[in-house]
Amino acid sequence: MAIKGADIIKIGETLVKEYGDKWTEKPEQEQLAFFREYGLKIELKKLKKDLEQFRVKFDHWFSETSLYKENKIEPTIDILRDKGYIYEQDGATWFRSTEFGDDKDRVLVKQDNSYTYLSPDIAYHKNKLARGFDKLINIWGGADHHGYIPRMRAAIQALGYDADTLEVEIIQMVNLFENGEKVKMSKRTGKAVTLRELMEEVGIDAMRYFFVMRSADSHLDFDMDLAKSESNDNPVYYVQYAHARICTMLKQAKEKGIEYSPSNGQLLQSDKAEELLKKLGGEFTQVVADAAVNRTPHRMTQYIFELAAHLHSFYNAEKVINEEDMEATKLVLP
């Protein structure tokens, strides 16, 4: 069978350079086990590198395979069995999830003795709780996962924890658009567009802003052309331009011997200035608190955009640095 994936081919070439024909005479199962582990390490290293560049850091990486290798699944099912939440029927092992509000009981071990997806998931959550975490927040992709929440919450309760120990955030898919058309495949590989490709195409700042400017449960149409444009229609450019204006004002003021001081605020008397100060001082702390407590980071991007709009409005309406009357200079922005 010919495998044409660019990543697979590259891994194969690396294998040949490193091991030559050492693995050609090995039993097929041994080959597959080694190649799977070898390829996984390479791909995982790439993922970690891309995420690090994207400025996203995971404190701990967990492998589902370890649940099988370390025999964590069967003991977890035994705990549920000891509590009376497991029964055998039609050659399968069932979890009485209906006792905790699920719409039907769920199979954990199929007739062929293989586990369903739910079994390792329960074992993983049991493992994480055993490591001392008192709040589990799962981020799942796609609305089709909504039905999985009740059975997972049932498992948490059956293990002896409160239902609200588990919180699930359902995020929606991101659609990429370029030249007004939906981008279905990568121009480079003919497959799904990767995080790295998008970073290289539109830039990290634009990606981070666009991804977080809507609530996680809302669909996002990511306009790649807009993200790259240098116009006020691009929210990233609009916000960054506000920051650039602030830096320019401070630089020009310093060149004229004016140092920033919060006391300069008393000279501000216009409506635009008052609106800006109200937005800056009156809302900032609450917005940050709300975004953190409710896990709604899009509140921050909305606030930043609105703040930038007030700054631009103020800048266009006021003579910030008044060379004719330095005492009246309205330099108030840090």
UniProtKB/TrEMBL annotation:
GO terms for cellular component: cytoplasm. GO terms for molecular function: arginine-tRNA ligase activity; ATP binding. GO terms for biological process: arginyl-tRNA aminoacylation. Its EC number is 6.1.1.19. Keywords: Aminoacyl-tRNA synthetase, ATP-binding, Ligase, Nucleotide-binding, Protein biosynthesis. It catalyses: tRNA(Arg) + L-arginine + ATP = L-arginyl-tRNA(Arg) + AMP + diphosphate. Residues 239-333 form the DALR anticodon binding domain. It comes from the Bacteria. NCBIfam families: argS. Belongs to the class-I aminoacyl-tRNA synthetase family. This is Arginine--tRNA ligase. The lineage of its organism: Bacteria, Bacillati, Bacillota, Bacilli, Bacillales.
